[in-house]
Amino acid sequence: MTLGDDMARANFWVAIAVGCAALAPTWARAAAFDVNHATALYLAVLSPAARARSDAYFDGGLWLDAASTLITVLLCWVILRVGLLVSLRDAMRRRGWRPWVVMLAVAALFVLLLSLLQLPWSIYVDFLRERRFGLMNQTFGGWLGQQAIALALTLVAGSLVLTVINAVIRAFPRHWWLIGAGVVGVLAAFFSLITPVFIMPLFNTYTDLAPGPLRTRIVAMADANHIPTNHIVVFDASRQSDRISANVSGVGPTVQISLTDNLVNRTSLPEAAAVVGHEMGHYVLGHVWTGIAVITLLSAAQFWLLARWAPGVLAAGAWRRGVRGIDDPAALPVLVGLMSALTLLFLPLSNTSTRYTESAADAFGLNAAREPDGFALAAMKLSTYRKIAPPWWEEALFYDHPSGHTRVYRAMQWKKDHVPGAIEVVPAPLPDVKGR
Ligand SMILES: [Zn+2]
Prior knowledge:
Helices cover about 70% and strands about 5% of the residues. The protein is mainly alpha-helical. The chain has a domain at about 50-185 and about 295-425. It has a four-stranded mixed beta sheet. The radius of gyration is 27 Å and the shape is elongated. Bound molecules: zinc ion. Zinc ion binds near residues 278, 282, 358 and 361.
């Protein structure tokens, strides 16, 4: 071994050492920002009582979903047993009404009966329980009034949809499940187009968002992402609840960025920008179309099962009730009862597909708004109605959005990756929501 070799070796190690020294400040900065610790600081803004409360609200809600399905199935059975649909069908046929008119009338009666029979359960789940958890801002009268509007809309839209599906069943007895799913896709596109323009204004008042820092910020973010800014509005969601949200809807000239007044009044500028960034993600990434594609595929799967399942159920008992087959208007209670059971079975699948698009919108929003701390705090504020840190399997099966913990963790990871010299923020505790 020569001196030259030693020198070369020494130089090599010196080079490594110098390299390490040069990198050291970067490492120190990165090491100083601990994603898990920063996440824990945000999770700590919830008091143990508030956390127990939102856990109870969410877990209870899962059981209520299952119970709601069971109740719907039972009510469908009751409607079938009472035989009103068969009587109406026969009376209209005797008077020579066209089949689609008979179907429309029977469907309307069915939707009306089911909605009215479900009302007591709905009063408990959607009003009393919401109020108990401090999530309801309406009086009972106000709530009931809005339910009446919703019932009128369901009556019109529900009867029409059921009549169209029935026409498909009659026209394509073998492949109705496939064509029916296509029809559902087209109807879903139609309803998602008209809902923001014609339906939402029936429940809330929309006004232009006043000029100010928030509007300026939203316009800048929209411009950067090529979103039209002709319509930036705020609506009085506080009328119903304190929930924080926003949405971007419409196509072309009807594109509208809508903020709830809760978002405007109950969050800081960074939080509001982070939430709007998320909603812009849904718009830019075309999630309306993803949603419609998913609805179409799930409908095809559910209709396929229904086409194989329903005739057996009808043969087992409903024949004696005067129901003659799945294309019979009076078969609606059987078809709708089975569909609601199938929808519950498919819930983990539809939740997962929604959660996937929500995660993509989260990632988009972090890049668009560059407000990881605002996003983390907003995610914590949503915890009043969503269990903040569920076990992984519960999130995989029952969450249609990433959990609060997942969202905060990803925001902190984003901060570590994108904010040079990121430092931890110690957020103030959230005030407890008081139930009534
Ligand atoms: Zn979303």
